[in-house]
Structure formats: C-alpha cells, structure tokens
Input
Amino acid sequence: MISVGSRFLAFATATFLIAACAPSTEPVDTSVLRGVASNFVVFASPEELASDPLSEVVVAGEVEGFEQGRTVVGAVPDDTLYNVVMRFRVTDPVKGADDNPKLADGYAYVELPQGGLCDPGLRPCRSLDDFAKAIPRGTRALLFLNTPPGPASGTADGGHVEPSPVGAHLFAVYPQGFLLETVEGGERRLVGGIEDLRGPGWSSVAQTADGDPLRVLVGRLKNTVAAGPGS
Output
C-alpha cells in the first residue's frame, strides 16, 4: 500500500469526462495506471484473491469516466500525490455487492493515483483526458476492491474532497485485481491494469475459446465465492 506519511488532503473539484456510450471496442492503454509503485501480497490466481478478506467487494462492469480526486500534500512541493476517481458502473456483482450501501447507486467510485509530476508547476504529467483516452468509456473490467486506509491527520482548509455524487464511498483496487478487457486483432482479451497477469493462475484467464474471457472468469469466481473459504 502507498504510505502518505504526514501528507494531508486538499480540495479538488471536477466533472466526469464523457466518451462513447456503447461498450468499447478499442484497445486500452494501461500505462496511465502505472505511475506509482506499491507493495502488496502476491496471490497465485483470481480465485485466491477473491476468497481473501482483502477483497471486500468483487464486481464486473463498465468504466464510465474519470474525475479529479483527492490531492495528498507533503512537506515539499514535489511530495504531492494527485488522484483521480474512476466511476465504474456495476453490471455483474461477484462478492460483497448485494445490499451493500457503498454501492447504493449501482456504481463503484475507485480512487487511483494520477502518477508523476511534471514541470512547470509540478502538476500531474497525465491529465483526466489522458485517462479517458487510455481507458475509454464502456471498457469492461473486473475489480477486486477494498476500503483505502484513512488519510493522514489534518485536511487543507478544514475540508475534504468528495467524489461525485457527494457522499459516495471511495474504494481502492488491489494491484492484482484490476482486470481490463481490451481488443487485439479483433479479439477480446483480459490484461492487468496495474500489474501484468503474471504466473499461470493469472495468464490462463487472458483468453478463452468462446471469445469472452471476462464472462468466463466472472462465472468461475462466483462459483468460488459460493463455495466459501478453502474451496
């Protein structure tokens, strides 16, 4: 997990960037999700991750857009962490989503680091438009979510940043648990958004004979969750 040390929150506001309405048939560019390194426990397969308490919520659905998120400010100007919030429409709940008040409107709001800073002004190198182009609206995905740790003590101007709509719960996505559907050579496949699908337990889910690896994986995970721990 990313440590924010003595950083605190600053105000940030924005609106969602809207792209196409239909499910995306464009390839995704995962580079926008890989601007910040993190330490985490490695799981051997999606089933193992889904069964672990670290996966509070597991859902499949579609990306709807990105907005500016929280700004975590450090002691010096270049020690600032900017975030975006991804609005994710849940279409297929797998774990922890039924009657979950954190998903009351049918959406998950996922906080993601915006990446490194660039001159002039030490602002994020990647803009909201970069995220929207890299992961178009309608991109199908599978997310393994949990609640991020609370911010460091103190908030800028005595306030805090809310995702849209105001009061929505912010989720963090597990580094291995951000699987995106992309289109390569006219065929759909799954790729790791933050971490590559390394090892046989992960790489084996990338493609399926029926051409819909996301649907197949969601079915497998539902069976795993229904069977309970140790299955």
Q: What stands out?
A: The CA atoms of residues 25 and 183 lie 6 Å apart. The radius of gyration is 17 Å. Helices lie at 46-51, 128-134, 200-203, 213-227.
